[in-house]
Structures are given as structure tokens and as C-alpha cells.
Amino acid sequence: MKPKMLPVTRRQTFMGRLEHGADLLEALNKFCIDEHISLGRVEAIGAVKKAALGYYDQDEKCYRYFEIDRHLEILNLVGNISLKDGKPFVHAHVTLADEAGRAFGGHLIPGTPIFACEAIIQAFDGPQLHRKTEPITGLPLWS
Ligand code: ZN
Questions:
Q1: Per-residue CA distances from 45 to 8, 42, 55, 101, 106 (Å)
Q2: Ligand 1 centre and the CA of 107: distance in Å?
Q3: How far does the centroid of ligand 1 lie from the alpha carbon of residue 94, in Å?
Q4: What is the CA radius of gyration of the chain?
Q5: Which of 51, 105, 136, 141 is deepest in the core (most CB within 10 A)?
Q6: Per-residue pLDDT of the chain (143 residues; tens, 9 = 90+)
Q7: Measured in angstroms, how far is the CA atom of residue 82 from the centroid of ligand 1?
């Protein structure tokens, strides 16, 4: 079956630094809500004071959450922006590294305070994507 991919065009790109001490995911969500960005992509690099991440258990169909209570580099944050429950919603995954370069990663959740973060957010124009719970995976996927 052909994947259902929708055409989008780049409307505007924002580039800047997120506030020290703010929650990484909440800062990204707040920016999108404030700027009315309901379709787009996110990327960022920087460092966090500690991290809270999720791993989706495909058998149990639920997230397993874990914390990494140490200073970490953000090697890569990549995510997308769509609507969930009628509000702009950032879905982001991160790869983080410790002082020896060991990498950790997962689905970003609140509980990850920023030490420093440089973010790029691209707003798209196109058909609006909405997240709805999908029965096969149990995940809130694009419907
Ligand atoms: Zn995820």
C-alpha cells in the first residue's frame, strides 16, 4: 500500500535560543501555541540538566518512562508539530550524551530542564494533521 503522505510548503522558519531552566518540551509547545504553529518540524541542539524520556512498550501498548539524573548534551532533537485535542502539539525524540559520549535517547516528555538550547522551528502550510488514538498501535497517530 502506498503511504499517505501529504504535500506541505514551508511558511516560515524561526531560529533562536530557549530559556535556561525552562522545560524543553513545554518551551517548544508554548512557542508553537503562541505563534499559532499547528503544522511543522522542530530541531534543536544544546544541553539539559537532566532528562525525562519515554519508551513505547509495543506489547503492553503503553509508555515506560525513565529519568536520567545527570547533565547531558542534546546531540539531536527532532520532532514534528501537529494538532492533538485541538491544540498545537510537539512530538519530539532526543539523543543525549554523557561526559564519556555515551548516548541515551527516547521520546521526550516534560521533566527535562534546559541548560542551553538552540532551536529551529519550521512552520508549514498544508492539510492539517490531527492526532487520534489508533487501535493497532494504541498510539495517538495522525488520522
Ligand atoms: Zn515518540
A1: 25, 11, 21, 15, 15
A2: 4
A3: 9
A4: 15
A5: 51
A6: 788 899 999 999 999 999 999 999 999 999 999 999 999 999 999 999 999 999 999 999 999 999 999 999 999 999 999 999 999 999 999 999 999 999 999 999 999 999 999 999 999 999 999 999 999 999 999 98
A7: 13
CA 56 to each of CA 5, 93, 106, 136: distance values in angstroms, whole numbers, following the listed order:
24, 12, 9, 13
**How many CB atoms are located within 10 Å of the residue 46 CB?**
19
Q: What's this model's pTM, rounded to 2 decimal places?
A: 0.95
Q: Are 80 and 42 in contact (CB under 8 A)?
A: yes
Beta bridge partners of 24: none
Q: In angstroms, rounded to a whole number, what is the distance separating the alpha carbons of residues 51 and 23?
A: 10
Match 492539517 to its residue by C-alpha cell: 128
Ligand 1: centre distance to CA 24 (Å): 15
